[in-house]
Amino acid sequence: MCAAAAREGGGRAVLPHPDPYRSGSRLPAGQSSVTKPQDKLRGWAAARKTILAGLRFTSLRLRLVVVFGLVALTAAVSASGIAYWLNREAVLTRTQDAVLGDFQQAMQTRASTLRPHPTQEELQRAAGQMANSSQRFSVLLIAEDESGKPVRGNSDLDTFTLEDVPKSLQKAVNKEQEISSNNKYTYHLYWQRTVQGDKPYLVGGAKVIGGGPTGYMLKSLEPEAKDLNSLAWSLGIATGLALIGSALLAQAAATTVLKPVHRLGTAARRLGEGKLDTRLRVSGTDELADLSRTFNRTAESLEKRVEDMSAREQASRRFVADMSHELRTPLTAITAVTEVLEEELDAETGSVDPMIEPAVRLVVSETRRLNNLVENLMEVTRFDAGTARLVLDNVDIVDQITACIDARAWLDAVDLDAERGLMARVDPRRLDVIMANLIGNALKHGGSPVRVSVRDEGNDLVIEVQDHGPGIPEDVLPHVFDRFYKASASRPRSEGSGLGLSIALENAHIHGGEITAANSPKGGAVFTLRLPRDASEVEDPENPDNSGGPGAAVADDRTEGGA
């Protein structure tokens, strides 16, 4: 008699119960499984959704670190999973082959030598001898004695019983197979991995061909499970270290990448501040080096263009200044002549021919207008050249505004809402220029009465000039302080020079103040002048007493189409 387990190619796997390590494993020489595998323990899900998908990171460094970390984590987890799976297969296959090989050998040398109807003592002794193997597994032998009564021999009494053997495995072991060209034996060796009390076991069984006992073995896989758990912990630690290493590497890479970007940002800010000679040091041939070269070329081109524009602007300013100075001498003579003619007209002596009287009055008016324009141009050139200076004095703001209104005979057309005693340190001449321009424009375009109010707001003075006209069109508001701006192209000529509001704004700026224009909800336009109570803080410390020349002429104009 010989054991079926001793036949070559006779081993098969029976897996109706969950495999704690690998489902569907079997001896390399075995045939197809007898029963269909049914796993209770499911592997952890392979499809995972990242929780960072909807987040937006504003820091490029953070995004680089996160990307590096995700790549490293994915690579480490994949490598660890593959390593764990390969090692698990190797460990379990090696243990399984060794145990089943010893069991086959024991069935051949021990169980097959028993009588067809052995006694329990014989089975018990044979089971003990079979279990005395280097693999240290438990053995259960089942046979019938001469009376037909089932007898059992167990190497470990009350430890390994038939109840520990899965029913499917018992059925597969005891099932007689038909002999065919593909199947040379009626019985085969079958094995199965099971879990009992959270501990993994390997169960195998075989039957002696030609009559004899049926043998089962039980091998604990707990040592292998501990080894695999240790391996899993080691791989987990390695994954964590790889993640930390990737974060450090990402930090270093981000520093390498972001350092040129930071230098580029600093250079761009310096360029925006007007330092057009800013350049970047270029090294390398990568994309960042190309970007630095592009920046340098752009900065060089911009510097050249700005220099050209500055040269043209300076030439234009010199032309206006020279022209204004050259015009003052002939204008002085012309003005003297026109004043004499105007006095003759006012005296009504008859020395002027009535036929030419309208022409004389037109010449007088246009001469006065031309003189105001030249004075305004002179003042503008001072602002453009940066030579305008403040001559500060402590003045009563209300008295100053009253004097401005009285000097121009506007007392009947202006309502002043203010109390005397409001002192401020300003340039009286320039404040007079500002108020004359604002009030004159309000009277011209808005009509009387014009309301002027003064209020104290801590360290600032706020002066509002409001008229009762139709207001300023919304598309004109952003341009009311532009030089020579005309709201209507069909009316390019007006009585004013087109510089009054611009000069008023420049005089406010030199005080450290501001002028804004808006439309009042009640109707009409409102110009708001805000000045510091003490303009000495914005005074030029190198030349505080330089007034920048004679006072600017008052321009009584406002942009066409204004309030």
UniProtKB/TrEMBL annotation:
Gene3D superfamilies: 1.10.287.130, 6.10.340.10, Histidine kinase-like ATPase, C-terminal domain. The keyword Nucleotide-binding applies. Its main location: membrane. The chain crosses the membrane at residues 64-86. One of its GO terms (cellular component) is plasma membrane. It comes from the Bacteria. GO terms for molecular function: ATP binding; phosphorelay sensor kinase activity. Keywords: ATP-binding, Cell membrane, Kinase, Membrane, Nucleotide-binding, Phosphoprotein, Transferase, Transmembrane, Transmembrane helix, Two-component regulatory system. The keyword Cell membrane applies. Residues 255-307 form the HAMP domain. Pfam families: HAMP, HATPase_c, HisKA. It catalyses: ATP + protein L-histidine = ADP + protein N-phospho-L-histidine. Residues 1-36, 531-563 are annotated as: Disordered. SUPFAM superfamilies: ATPase domain of HSP90 chaperone/DNA topoisomerase II/histidine kinase (SSF55874), HAMP domain-like (SSF158472), Homodimeric domain of signal transducing histidine kinase (SSF47384). Its EC number is 2.7.13.3. It is a multi-pass membrane protein. InterPro entries: HAMP_dom, HATPase_C_sf, HATPase_dom, His_kinase_dom, HisK_dim/P_dom, HisK_dim/P_sf, Sig_transdc_His_kin-like_C. PROSITE patterns: HAMP, HIS_KIN. Residues 322-535 form the Histidine kinase domain. It is found in: Cell membrane. It is an enzyme of class 2 (transferase). This is histidine kinase.
